[in-house]
Write a structure and sequence with these properties.
alpha/beta, single chain, 7-stranded mixed beta sheet
Length: 495
């Protein structure tokens, strides 16, 4: 009875949270990409600059053919959240209080539960493998298939998939059954998933989004990277409206001093279960290596340390009684995350996560259907385009589109650092301001650019390209959790 109640409470709160959540650019980007892809081969061409595996796009693609409403992505995401909750409540070895802590943790409840990205699908596959692991020899083909798919979910889950595959091979080898065809073939199939991941994840040479790899040893960076374990296990942000991506403890040395003893104690407590020990060491190690070589990321990436811990704890329960230290670390991590998850969700319920949907709603209700729309910056304008369900003109890259192409030609320093004066000039050059028009602006947190922002209703007389214009700020949307998705809508008329 209490399990059913927990399941219902969780899915109701997730459904309410998704309804209240305004999607931001990374969520809408995936939807716009699949909607604009006419076929599966076309989809592969469209996403080649994304740097993500294909699974999430393939899941969304058929739904996008029934319409362009971006809320569809949240319906798909809700179904996966319900499935994850079902596995945790009805199929896991976790105690009831642990189920509550895990489901309402920062990552499963908010970061992966309410934000519709390609992370929850990986968690669903990982926990599916955990369920099957209880009879791993009987379920070797099912595990192999899920591992193949897990490699295609996202880069961090691919690293965890490699660690799971290593654990599977070690366990089968220990039991002297690895080279039996019924076990070896699923292992090879899973390896093929890893190869496919490597083929599809590598973008073309002119990719310009985070293209740099760090191939040198920097002690400071090593300390910072180790500290990301703390961010992934104990994600405590600043308790304010714009909390997302902030860290209460930013000092990298302090974070590393927390991560090292926690990680060491966890490995020591798992030492008697060799496969689980190897998985934990490999998964944490691979993710640390990747974060060092590619020193970018935020909580949604670091949270995979928590997911690896959940999987290790789950699998360890099948073979032996949980060591006290393992249980202490597991309980501490998820009980700390519980209030943070509730805070994040409540803040999202009360405040706009992004103001893109509100900007789009204003344009639809107050502008004629044939209004000329331009967005100042492509990456900041895509969520508005997604909610409008139409392409708009990107001033900084010269395209009519509703998604960003992470290509040097369209995504470079110059294209993302245009001044307001430059953008206004480009607008009157490319948009017929004698007809209904609107410019979508969003300002960064740079004080210089913020000083350019107008007040709602403010009228400015400007001389642009030798002509005089009246520029009116017709609407301002502020207060979003994602601070660069606050929008200013301008209209232009020639005097």
């Amino acid at each position: 009875m209490r399990s059913t109640l927990l399941f219902l409470v969780y899915i109701i709160l997730v459904a309410f949270g998704l309804h209240q959540h305004e999607m931001w650019r990374d969520e809408i980007q995936a939807w716009n990409l699949v909607h604009d892809s006419a076929s599966i081969p076309d989809l592969f061409r469209t996403i080649r600059y994304e740097g993500h595996p294909v699974l999430w796009f393939l899941v969304l693609w058929p739904f996008s053919k029934f319409g362009h409403d971006p809320h569809t992505i949240q319906v798909v995401h809700f179904c996966m959240a319900a499935f994850v909750a079902f596995l945790v409540i009805y199929k896991s070895p976790l105690r009831f209080y642990q189920q509550i802590a895990v489901l309402f943790s920062y990552f499963l409840f908010f970061e992966y539960g309410l934000i519709s990205r390609n992370y929850l699908i990986g968690i669903a596959l990982l926990l599916g493998i955990a369920v099957l692991w209880k009879n791993d020899r009987k379920n070797s083909w099912s595990i192999g298939i899920l591992l193949f798919l897990l490699f295609q979910s996202n880069a961090f889950m691919a690293l965890i998939a490699a660690a799971v595959l290593l654990m599977l091979m070690l366990e089968l080898f220990h039991n002297q059954v690895l080279f039996k065809p019924q076990n070896l073939l699923p292992v090879v199939f899973a390896m093929a998933g890893g190869v496919l991941f490597l083929i599809t994840i590598v973008p073309p040479p002119d990719n310009s989004y985070a293209p740099i790899w760090n191939l040198h040893f920097w002690p400071g960076l090593a300390v910072t990277t180790i500290g990301k374990i703390t961010a992934g296990l104990l994600p405590v942000p600043e308790f304010k409206t714009a909390f997302w991506g902030t860290r209460l403890i930013e000092n990298s040395i302090v974070n590393a001093l927390i991560a090292v003893p926690v990680g060491t104690a966890l490995l020591w407590s798992l030492r008697k279960n060799t496969p689980v020990f190897v998985f934990t060491l490999a998964s944490f190690g691979l993710m640390l290596l990747f974060l060092y070589l590619k020193p970018v990321g935020t909580y949604r990436h670091y949270g995979h340390f928590s997911m690896a811990l959940l999987f290790a704890y789950w699998i360890n329960a099948y073979r032996s009684e949980q060591p006290r230290m393992t249980s202490f670390i597991f309980n501490s991590v998820f009980l700390v995350q519980l209030p943070v998850g509730l805070f994040a969700a409540f803040t999202d319920w009360k405040n706009p996560f992004s103001n893109a949907v509100h900007a789009a709603d204003y344009i639809e209700k107050n502008m004629p259907e044939n209004v000329r729309i331009a967005g100042a910056f492509n990456y900041l304008s895509t969520p508005v385009a997604g909610y409008l369900q139409k392409e708009i003109f990107f001033l900084n890259d010269g395209r009519y589109s509703d998604y960003v192409i992470w290509r040097e030609k369209y995504w470079n320093y110059k294209a993302t650092h245009l001044s307001q004066a430059e953008l206004f000039s480009k607008f009157v050059e490319t948009v017929d301001v004698r007809k209904s028009n609107v410019l979508i602006m969003s300002y960064t947190l740079d004080p210089y650019t913020l000083n350019d922002a107008a007040r709602e209703g403010q009228v400015q007389l400007m001389k642009l390209n030798g002509r005089n214009y009246k520029v009116t700020c017709v609407k301002v949307y502020a207060g979003a959790i994602v601070e660069d998705e606050n929008y200013y809508l301008y209209t232009f008329s020639e005097i």
